[in-house]
């Protein structure tokens, strides 16, 4: 597997792909269009919740407002919008296309089609149904990890990092909930990077890691649905090889900040070092995510709530502490092929913290 290589067209850029570059020449700048809405930061590090901000109004709003929202999501990691129960799957898809466009995604990037999405799905190929009923049948990461660990923290991941062009933003609306339980947690990849020592940061910035979802082949066979091998939202995401190599540290082009980019769900190996070394480093990085509750935010859902997050610089984990039904709809947009700009800053450095 390749190590991190520098693109000599711009000597500070490591990784990425010439057919999947962000269209931003520099990070976005906030214009203040969301200041009139009631809002609060859920924790100092991650999460912001708005009141009175509705998906349909945002769809009718200006491009400048959509850019401000994209920047806010990318800076805060995840944004919560309460009371969006009337938002339809089509509106969610339209919104995500506008959001990713406003944030400068490559022209070749579209909404993602999950490899396990059933053809002819009622909500369309680009909407993933998140359902406790599917989980009980052994779906997704829950099945893959169920024979490995009983730690709830095993489920931490970033969406679809096994793709050559993974997700930039994701939106989830929960419409069916148990009486209690079913919270979701997010953690900040920016903050995890900031907690590394300078020598460790410098070392990790020279490395790549392999992300692998080959277990989806077994799951597709078990579910009786063929794996989706046609284009899954990007020309680089097609075929049956559900593996990708990405920089261990990546730059978010919307903020210009560095983030750790490995996750328990899909990252299997750090390349160009021994397996023992890889196992130790991955365990350490995973522990930074799961054992630092002050780098996390926990969201208690109400029916109709929406969360929108940036997969380039966050991790998330569902909480399976319920027996009643829990269900929702998720839409993922695709960003750029992951890269590291060696001249980019950390979150704390950029904010003067």
Mean pLDDT, to the nearest integer, reads: 91
Structural class by helix and strand composition? alpha+beta
Low-confidence stretches: none
Count of helical stretches: 10
Q: Which band does the percent of strand residues land in?
A: 15-25%
Order of helices and strands: EEEEHHEHEHHEEHHEHEEEEHEEEEEH
| Biggest pleated-sheet summary | 7 strands, mixed
Order of strands, widest sheet = 3-4-5-15-7-17-6
- Could you estimate the helical fraction of the residues in percent? 25-40%
| First and last CA, distance | 37 Å
The total beta strand count reads: 18
Overall, the morphology is: globular
- What integer value in Å does the Rg equal? 19 Å
Keywords: Dioxygenase, Iron, Metal-binding, Oxidoreductase
Organism: Emericellopsis cladophorae
Protein name: TauD/TfdA-like domain-containing protein
GO molecular function, one term: 2-oxoglutarate-dependent dioxygenase activity
């Amino acid at each position: 597997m390749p190590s991190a290589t520098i693109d000599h067209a711009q000597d500070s850029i490591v990784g990425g792909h010439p057919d999947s570059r962000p269209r931003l020449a520099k990070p976005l700048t906030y214009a203040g269009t969301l200041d009139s809405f009631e809002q609060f930061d859920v924790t100092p590090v991650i999460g912001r919740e708005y009141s009175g901000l509705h998906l349909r109004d945002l769809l009718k709003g200006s491009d400048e407002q959509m850019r401000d929202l994209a920047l806010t999501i990318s800076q805060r990691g995840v944004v919560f919008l309460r009371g969006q129960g009337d938002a339809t799957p089509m509106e969610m898809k339209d919104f995500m296309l506008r959001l990713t466009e406003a944030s400068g995604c490559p022209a070749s990037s579209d909404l993602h089609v999950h490899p396990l999405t059933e053809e002819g799905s009622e909500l369309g190929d680009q909407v993933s149904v998140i359902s406790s009923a599917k989980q009980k049948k052994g779906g997704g990461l829950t099945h893959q990890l169920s024979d490995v660990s009983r730690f709830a923290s095993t489920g931490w991941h970033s969406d679809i990092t096994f793709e050559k062009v993974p997700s930039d933003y994701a939106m989830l609306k929960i419409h069916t909930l148990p009486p209690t339980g079913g919270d979701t947690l997010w953690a900040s990849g920016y903050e995890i990077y900031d907690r590394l020592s300078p020598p460790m940061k410098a070392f990790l910035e020279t490395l790549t890691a392999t992300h692998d979802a080959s277990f989806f082949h077994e799951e597709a066979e078990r579910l009786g649905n063929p794996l989706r091998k046609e284009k899954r939202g990007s020309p680089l995401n097609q075929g049956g090889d559900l593996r990708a190599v990405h920089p261990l540290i990546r730059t978010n082009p919307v903020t210009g900040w560095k983030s750790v980019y490995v996750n328990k769900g899909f990252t299997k190996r750090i390349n160009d070092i021994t397996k023992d070394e890889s196992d130790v480093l991955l365990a350490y990085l995973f522990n930074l995510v799961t054992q630092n509750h002050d780098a996390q935010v926990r969201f208690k859902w109400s029916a109709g709530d929406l969360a929108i997050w940036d997969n380039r610089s966050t991790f998330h984990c569902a909480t399976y502490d319920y027996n009643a039904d829990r269900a929702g709809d998720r839409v993922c947009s695709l960003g750029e092929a992951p890269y590291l700009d060696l001249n980019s800053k950390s979150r704390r450095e950029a904010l003067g913290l």
